[in-house]
Specification:
By secondary structure, the protein is α/β, with parallel strands linked by helices. Helix content is 28%, strand content 19%.
Length: 624
């Protein structure tokens, strides 16, 4: 039978039947963590009493919490480095770069599986592997040698025809896909790219597309491993990692779409969702206060070639702040060596650290009511640190010409051939530490023990703690940013921030009533893989989340920590009293709104192992 590339990658890592919509278990070859999620992941891993990681490769990156406003982040970094050395994990120090950019450069391999505690882990699928984002506990289990459980995804084929025109980029391709499918259109699906247009895209361009596939809610996005893959691996001095991989001719897909690259134009995602996509010309010449180029989506050397081509001989508008953040130490050294950095600085750019930085809310918050153009992947409300700001997502080319003009502009008429693509890459791995398997774990005072959760009973009465609408992101539930991220290893303290940008009284109600139930609509929990968006509500006594639909990673995180996710349409206001009854087989739930006098009976579709997790109070209880 002809197989898709996705099916080939999965079949090579499981002995189970590939039945769409059913739980399967796949072997994980590589894992990655970053410091914002990694501290909790390694606390979970240590609780399992495993002598060393069981994967082929596990890498611990420090790229999120690099703004040192106190001892907490530095203590977390020391903890991560000590655990990595002791347990057999490669450690990428602060300054080495963003996890996804570095992993693509130095570690990702065609044909392998990669599980990462960051939703943008599918970046590496641009090289022909199957990379999946997950909660930290799932990654900890994978490091302990356990298979990863996921719903066997549907496979969506997006055929790329033609070739991108001047001023149009890979960012515009994924923005077009988001416009077509929306932020919930990829849930429990893998997006597979095929067609003649694929051959014209470099691996970093492919990685831009697979990176933002996370905004579709997709399990992953994959490109074939072909001549362009070999070209990139050779430049990285890793040609021995190359394996040719593609879908079989005649493979059958669940959905099929076509994008004609010849007719694609520069696009922009408008506030405050990545799928609010319009053409740059339709949005018009809106005045811009800030432009930021970087993040794991668009911070490769190839991106900065294009930016420098536009900025060469020009000056940034005096009313615009332009920040640039190379994605890795390799990229920073290469733009320095080639003269690109000098071109950018001469134009008036500000050089930021090779880290996630403003994308995760670490610095560079816009001014009040400001308009910020960013080459990032998310523009959720409040994520920038300025709630009144309007955040637009654009390509590096649009960002660069807009920084010069001072307003949103199209780059299609700009000359983009001033700089040649690289013929060799710079290699400097002195910020990458190999494990020594000795020493002791270093734990600062902000690193607290993991909380223990009992199972939620099948019958309970509780009040509604918050009632929400569609597309609630993990940024809404558990914000990031400089004020919050330092407490990622302290669940008691970080719970203070739970929903605080949406409803400042949420925690107060939870404390007063001993927790309760969350009610929402479509696509609850989209965005980041941060499991803190499940742990903190659980710590505050949340027993159940009732929503019309859930994002894949967050739903799994809820189950992992013993919160019962129920897909149902329930009308409830804050402090409405609900009586919940789950039948003995976990196949049906009755939700009676005592306050309103209404009752909803909804089916449940848990697999047996999910029921076991809920009955145990979560995956950590089962793993121990």
């Amino acid at each position: 039978m002809a197989l898709t590339l996705t099916e080939k990658l999965i079949a090579a890592h499981t002995d189970e039947k590939l039945e769409k919509g059913k739980l399967i278990h796949i072997r994980i070859d590589q894992t990655l963590t970053q410091d914002a999620t990694g501290t909790m992941a390694y606390l979970e891993f240590l609780s399992m009493n495993v002598d060393k990681v069981k994967t082929e490769l596990s890498v611990s990156y420090v790229d999120h919490n690099t703004l040192q406003s106190g001892f907490m982040n530095a203590d977390d970094h020391a903890f991560l480095q000590s655990v990595a050395s002791l347990k057999g994990v490669v450690f990428s120090k602060p300054g080495n770069g963003i996890c996804h950019q570095v992993h693509l450069e130095r570690f990702a391999k065609p044909g392998k599986t990669l599980l990462g505690s960051d939703s943008h882990t599918p970046t590496s699928s641009g090289i022909g592997c199957l990379a999946i984002g997950a909660g930290g506990l799932d990654v900890a289990c994978a490091m302990a040698g356990m298979p990863f459980t996921l719903v066997m995804p549907k496979v969506v084929n997006i055929e790329l025809k033609g070739k991108l025109q001047n001023g149009v980029s890979a960012k515009d391709i994924i923005l077009k896909v988001l416009q077509m499918l929306t932020v919930k259109g990829g849930v429990n699906k893998v997006i597979e790219y095929t067609g003649e247009g694929v051959k014209s895209l470099s691996v970093p361009e492919r990685a831009t597309i697979t990176n933002m596939g996370a905004e579709l809610g997709a399990t992953s996005s994959v490109f074939p491993s072909d001549e362009r893959t070999l070209e990139y691996l050779t430049l990285q001095n890793r040609s021995e990692d190359y394996v040719p991989l593609s879908a079989d001719e005649g493979a059958s897909y669940d959905e099929y779409y076509v994008i004609d690259l010849n007719t694609l134009e520069p696009l922009v995602a408008c506030p405050s969702q990545p799928d609010q996509v319009r053409s740059v010309t339709d949005v018009g010449p809106i005045k811009v206060n800030q432009v930021l180029i970087g993040s794991c989506t668009n911070s490769s050397y190839y991106d900065f070639i294009k930016v420098a081509s536009i900025l060469k001989g020009k000056k940034v508008n005096p009313n615009v702040s332009l920040g640039i953040a190379p994605g890795s130490k390799q990229v920073l050294r290469m733009i320095t060596k080639s003269g690109i950095l000098d071109t950018l600085l001469e134009a008036g750019a500000r050089l930021l650290e090779s880290a996630c930085g403003p994308c995760i809310g670490m610095g560079q918050s816009p001014c009040t009511n400001g308009i910020s153009l960013r080459t990032f992947n998310r523009n959720f409300y409040g994520r920038s640190g300025t709630e009144s700001a309007s955040i637009y997502l654009v390509s590096p080319e649009v960002a660069a010409i807009s920084a010069v003009n001072g307003y949103l502009s199209s780059p299609v008429r700009e000359k983009l051939d001033e700089f040649e693509e690289p013929r060799e890459f710079v290699f400097d791995d002195n910020l990458v530490l190999q494990p020594t398997f000795d020493g002791e774990v270093i734990m600062g005072p902000n690193i607290k023990p993991l909380p223990h959760f009992e199972a939620v009973p099948k019958e309970f009465t509780a009040k509604t703690m918050i009632a929400l609408g569609d597309n609630i992101s993990t940024d809404h539930i558990m914000p990031a940013g400089a004020k919050v991220l330092p407490y990622r290893s302290n669940i008691e303290r970080i719970s203070d921030f739970c929903f605080y940008q949406v409803d400042a009284d949420f925690k107060k109600r939870c404390v007063e009533y001993g927790g309760g139930v969350i009610v929402a609509n479509e696509n609850y929990g989209q965005g980041s893989s941060r499991e803190h968006a499940a742990i903190a509500p659980r710590y505050l006594g949340i027993k159940m989340v009732i929503a019309k639909s859930f994002a894949r990673i967050h739903k799994k995180n809820l189950i992992n920590f013993g919160i019962i996710p129920v897909e149902a349409s329930v009308r409830a206001d804050v402090l409405d009293e609900l009586k919940v009854t789950i039948n003995s087989s976990y196949s049906e739930v009755t939700i009676e709104n005592i306050t309103k006098g209404t009752t909803v009976v909804a089916p449940l579709s848990f697999e047996q192992e999910e029921i076991t997790l809920l009955e145990k109070g979560g995956l950590l209880n089962l793993a121990n």
